[in-house]
Amino acid sequence: MTSGNKVQCLAEALEQRILAAEWVPGNRLPAQQRLMAEFGVARTTLREALGLLQERGVLRTQHGSGSYVNNLFEASFLPPLNQLSMTDPQAQVAVLEMRQVLEGEAAFYACLRATDVELAAIDEEYQRMLARAASLPVLERAKADLTFHMLIAEASHNLWVVSLSQLLYSKMFNTIFAALSGGMLEQAGNMEAVENQHRDIHTAILKRDANGAKQAAQIHAWHTALMCQQLRRNKED
Description:
CATH superfamily of the largest domain: GntR ligand-binding domain-like
Strand content: under 5%
Shape: elongated
Distance between the termini: 72 Å
Largest sheet: 2 strands, antiparallel
Low-confidence stretches: none
CATH class of the largest domain: Mainly Alpha
CATH architecture of the largest domain: Up-down Bundle
Order of helices and strands: HHHEEHHHHHHH
């Protein structure tokens, strides 16, 4: 096999890992020494393969830090998402409906595909979120909520789910923050409801109950949508 063929084959092998969501957008690739040992290649071959993936937009390099996976959907989906005004009620409803679909499927496949390490990370984040919920500022509570759901998305090992979840959450953060800071959690038992929903998602995922996790995640997303709609009505009154 020629040097050029080795580089191309290695680039394709690395790309397959990314397409299989073994390394998800934002992840740093393993150290070069580890990749060289795993694939049995020289440093020059590895660097040329990484260079090919950078040219394709699959990877980016941070000097002194390493190679990171790009969100392959960003160029196609983010521009139209950025055209949406998240103050527009119809846009808010559409995004929150999409959240129901994504979070339901993410939870379903996380139950089927998550490693034990990933389940432990989800459990750890849930316990951290639970312990700090009352003491956290509203902004940090909103971040903790999205971190919990993003860990579930990553555990689905579906590149589409992970990539679209990242883009959706980047647009949704202000909406969730507005619901929290608008006092919606303190109204009519919303705080208790959200905590119960997170508990149901967490419990089902740890049991690897795919259907139960999907249903719990969809109920949670639906309830969040209701809170945001109520917040909008309150502002209109």
